[in-house]
Amino acid sequence: MPSTDDILDVAAAVFAEMGYAGARVDEIAKAANVNKATLYYRIGDKDALYEAILKRIFATKVANIEHMLKTFDDAEDRVRAFAAVLVDDEHPEHFSAIMLREIANGGRNLPDSILPFMSRLVAVLEQTLADGVAKGRFKPVNPFMVHIILVGACSLYATNGPIRRRVALMASKGSSLNTEMPISQVAHAIAEMLLGGIRTS
């Protein structure tokens, strides 16, 4: 019998591919090798399933961010760690696809219970940037815009693999265009480019 986490893994992949409106509980149950009644009994209806997926992901990210606060004193290291946390799922493309769909439709299906998790992530970044400014390391910047840059760039990379590969095929011979990097390296590169723009020197 698949575990609840196994079911949520399958459901996350379906929601990522089909979106909330396109995902069907009976198809998720079939893909997870459980009957629909079992899925409803163990997790709940489609709304409950979607909420459980997002809660699991965001709770992990917040826990990792809290750990990061205790691990790194340097503001730059915290920014790098923040970017890494954004892509530290086993399948970051699933989370990114789900969130990009929510962003595109104005959060129409985003449960209110997820908002405190999101708020905590932004608050940690705000605190990190403020510490950097106070120590003379960073220029004053809008924390929410920094959050958008990190989340947007990491999420776009995590989800656009098929397009990247098509673009790479069209690149001229000898081009230095490198569209394929491990997602952890991408997060680090994005953080470094961002840090280059907000450092005081």
SSE arrangement:
Elements: H1 4-22, H2 25-31, H3 36-42, H4 46-71, H5 75-86, H6 92-104, H7 115-134, H8 143-159, H9 161-170, H10 183-198
Helix pairs in contact: 1-4, 1-6, 4-5, 4-7, 5-7, 5-10, 6-8, 7-8, 8-10
How would you describe the overall organization of this protein?
This protein is an all-alpha fold. It has a single domain, classed as Tetracycline Repressor, domain 2. Helices cover 73% and strands 0% of the residues. It contains ten helices and no strands. The protein has helices at residues 4-22, 25-31, 36-42, 46-71, 75-86, 92-104, 115-134, 143-159, 161-170, 183-198. The model has no long low-confidence stretch (mean pLDDT 92).
**How many domains is the backbone divided into?**
1
Tell me how many strands there are.
0
Class in CATH?
Mainly Alpha
Unreliable parts: none
* CATH architecture title: Orthogonal Bundle
What percent of the residues sit in helical stretches (DSSP H or I)? over 70%
- Average predicted local confidence, pLDDT: 92
Spatial gap, N to C terminus: 57 Å
Envelope shape = globular
Please provide the ordered H/E string of secondary-structure elements.
HHHHHHHHHH
Helical/strand content category: mainly alpha
Oligomer: single chain
- How much is the radius of gyration in Å? 19 Å
Range of strand content:
under 5%
Under CATH, the homologous superfamily reads Tetracycline Repressor, domain 2
Number of helices: 10
Main sheet? none
CATH topology: Tetracycline Repressor, domain 2
